[in-house]
Amino acid sequence: MPWIQLRIDSDPEYAEQIGNMLSANGAQAVTFVDAKDTPMYEPKPGETLLWPDTQVVGLFDAADDMAAVISRLEKSKILGKDFAHKLDQLEDKDWEREWMDNFHPMQFGERLWICPSWREVPDPTAVNVMLDPGLAFGTGTHPTTALCLRWLDALDLKDKVVVDFGCGSGILALAALKLGAREVIGIDIDPQALQATMENARRNEVESRLSVYLPADQPTLEADVVMANILSGPLIALQKVITAFCKPGGKLVLSGILEEQVENIERAYRADFALDPSAVDAEWARVSGTRKH
Description:
alpha/beta; Alpha-Beta Plaits; Rossmann fold; 2 domains; 8-stranded mixed beta sheet; 4-stranded antiparallel beta sheet; about 30% helix; about 30% strand
């Protein structure tokens, strides 16, 4: 059926309240989008980050009385009379199919592909990770994840033990297992992320080689490879914890870092690691290296 889209510009502190008001006035769906081209950190699983200039978008049935909706919204203290808004008519579409069509198989490096389940695998002989967007963040579309996947693809992971610190959807853990790792330990602060990681592992038939833990339960071990795709603040605050997981001669990769934050990350890890040149993709960066003996 046809739809009408109502767009309202907002400060992030009021965006969720405006979204709730749209839902209360009959919006079938509410989304938050960037009103300007503003860089945003990758969120932790389960966390919602909003831009300094956020646009709240409500989707209404075209038969709804939008004049009455606007009139009711004008009575709110947050919006007030004559608040700035835009109404757009949308053509009738299969919106679920439209959403699914936005996700395509993606190649990282020479061997590795990330494929949504509803798409045909482009190369059956490649290393294919089947992963759908959903329960936790991480499908390979974000530059921080892509940087780590390309780094993993270039490694020899045969029989290696890997730690995925901040595993999210498990995309890096699954890629490591599909690339030959003997065992992966996933750690995350969010139980939902651990659930998503294990569900995705079962879908890829690698769950027998994967263990997941909350930080309070994480094991003590030294791994061959340590991955931490989180944010620069936690990477620095948890430097000792992350370093302790990596054995001498082991490999480390860090991401979730803006390009201007690389120097601080390198300063925090340089004493324990021989660092490689950093890699950058669309303002985001990757830091990697080898644990010193």
